[in-house]
Design a protein that fits this description.
Blueprint (H helix, E strand, L loop, with lengths): L5 E2 L1 E4 L12 H10 L4 E2 L5 E2 L5 E5 L12 E5 L11 E4 L4 E4 L1 E2 L5 E2 L8 H4 L37 E2 L23 E6 L6 E5 L7 E3 L5 E7 L3 E6 L4 E6 L4 E7 L7 E4 L4 E6 L4 E6 L4 E7 L4 E6 L5 E6 L4 E6 L5 E7 L3 E7 L2 E6 L4 E6 L5 E6 L4 E7 L2 E6 L4 E6 L4 E7 L6 E6 L5 E6 L4 E6 L4 E7 L6 E6 L7
Antiparallel strand pairs: 1-26, 2-22, 3-4, 4-5, 5-8, 6-7, 7-8, 9-10, 11-14, 12-13, 12-39, 13-14, 15-16, 16-17, 17-18, 19-20, 20-21, 21-22, 23-24, 24-25, 25-26, 27-28, 28-29, 29-30, 31-32, 32-33, 33-34, 35-36, 36-37, 37-38
Length: 477
């Protein structure tokens, strides 16, 4: 099984837009003094903690004063803490506050005679401006080629009235402190749209309309949802503050699975059709590297320390590891049938076979087989939590718990959902996992530490995948 390490061909992506707008560091520092935790969105929009929005105007010529300070405000004599309508800095950088006029339209401060800093400034050209923003006629020059959506643009948020499905007779929901103020984004095999729930409801509050069926979705920083879809050559970035597609990151083929390294602020996105894994900078939402690999990748898995990626070649049934911190070297692990999930802990690779109903354990350094263990029928997913491996088996809806220090299965917990389990998701910062079911209209709340089912909650639609984020204050439309 040992194979020589193969050096990957690495291609740098030069698709970063020339119009991408990064707010200068000194402006960010100045704003953060009065408003810590301000969101400097990658497209240029500045959102204060209370959801006050400022639009930046970049000067035609960059000036670098020794000390950054405010030159002028409207109304005059205000500090940034007062949140004036217009702020002009001594480097000619301008902040325009988004206002609401008497008719409810979004607009900015109207000048009888706009100052030179505004007349010569320009809004970021890839910015998603507030829906229906109206720019005064004598300031239209700041727009450039920027597209501004009309007030009648419905966006992607839609109301839903889903049909009730069989939920096994469950009528009430269990709520938990760990899931308080959380939002659930749910994909279903019976809808293209992403349904949006809170934990106290079985019916979606609303949905995010999609034109294609989602393949994978992941949240980043509780602010953005990254989505890939069938027959669509882009990674869509949805702003959760306003439920809008804020950016579409295009590649030449359909992107598939997404995994996120939150520490390095990188998303890895596979494309089986292109035999590639793309790396996305999550701070700028831009592609910056393409890793050309062997085969048609799926079951993409990132090690907990972010040093290795694993994938399964669905054409040849080979498993490969990519050493991300070792010049992207490719290491062949071996051939395994019908792999449903790959996990990595303590220098050991754990591989489940959906059809063979077994778990293979491989020593990463030697690529030697440590053990093979029988599992319950249809092992479909695995989750690493501390030193335990939680194996989800779909036929009888069982979680088997393996102690990775001894590689012995120590517990079997029945979920009693009478459906067909699909995935197990750990809720960051908690000991809670959610287990989805594509047949029964339920999701199971599982305590990973106590190794027990807390509740089985009804939901109006069968779930194929779920993302849970902190509930955030929405930007008023």
């Amino acid at each position: 099984m040992k194979k020589l390490l193969i050096c990957l061909g690495i291609m740098m992506i030069t698709a970063v837009s020339a119009n991408a707008a990064k707010i200068p560091d000194n402006i960010q520092t100045y704003v953060n003094k009065d408003f810590p935790q301000t969101n400097f969105r990658f497209d240029g929009v500045i959102i204060l903690p209370d959801n006050t929005i400022y639009l930046p105007l970049f000067p035609a010529k960059i000036i670098n004063p020794e000390t950054l300070q405010i030159k002028t405000t409207y109304p005059a004599g205000k500090t940034l803490a007062d949140k004036p309508n217009v702020v002009i800095f001594n480097n000619d950088f301008v902040l325009l506050k988004v206002l609401t006029d008497t008719k409810g339209n979004k607009t900015v401060y109207r000048f009888a005679n706009p100052p030179m800093e505004i007349r010569t400034g320009l809004l970021p050209q890839d910015m998603l401006v507030p829906k229906g923003l109206q720019i005064p006629d004598n300031m239209k020059g700041i727009i450039g080629n920027l597209e501004i959506k009309t007030a009648t643009d419905p966006g992607i948020k839609v109301q839903v009235t889903p049909k009730n499905t069989n939920s096994g007779g469950l009528k009430t929901l269990t709520t938990l402190p760990q899931l308080k103020n959380k939002t659930f984004y749910v994909a279903s095999p019976y809808s293209k749209n992403i349904q949006v729930f809170n934990q106290a409801t079985k019916t979606p509050d609303y949905a995010l309309a999609q034109k294609n069926v989602p393949i994978s979705m992941k949240a980043y920083d509780n602010k953005f949802l990254l989505v890939t879809s069938y027959d669509k050559p882009s990674i869509d970035v949805i702003s959760l503050a306003d439920d809008q597609i804020i950016k579409q990151i295009y590649i030449k083929t359909q992107p598939d699975e997404i995994v996120i390294d939150k520490n390095k602020k990188i998303a890895y996105v596979s494309s089986a059709e292109d035999s590639s894994i793309y790396m996305v900078n999550l701070e700028t939402m831009t592609l910056f590297r393409q890793i050309k690999i062997t085969g048609m990748c799926e079951k993409l898995t990132l090690s907990e320390d972010g040093s290795k990626l694993f994938y399964y070649d669905k054409k040849t049934r080979d498993i490969w590891a990519i050493e991300l911190d070792n010049d992207y070297l490719l290491k062949e692990i071996g051939k395994f049938p019908n792999v449903s999930k790959i996990a990595f802990i303590n220098d050991k690779i754990y591989i489940t076979s959906r059809t063979k109903n077994h778990l293979a354990i491989i020593d990463y350094k030697t690529i030697g087989l440590i053990a093979e263990t029988e599992t319950s029928d249809k092992p479909v997913d695995m989750l690493v939590f501390h030193d335990k491996l939680y194996i989800l088996c779909a036929t009888d809806n069982i979680i088997e718990i393996l102690d990775t220090t001894t590689d012995a299965i120590t517990d079997k917990i029945y979920l009693s959902t009478y459906g067909f389990s699909t995935k197990i998701y750990h809720i960051d910062g908690t000991n809670i996992a959610l287990i989805t079911d594509t047949k029964a209209s339920t999701y199971t709340i599982f305590d990973l530490g106590a190794k027990k089912v807390i509740a089985t909650n009804p939901i109006d639609i069968p779930v194929s995948s779920i993302v849970v984020t902190d509930k955030i204050k929405k930007i008023n439309k």
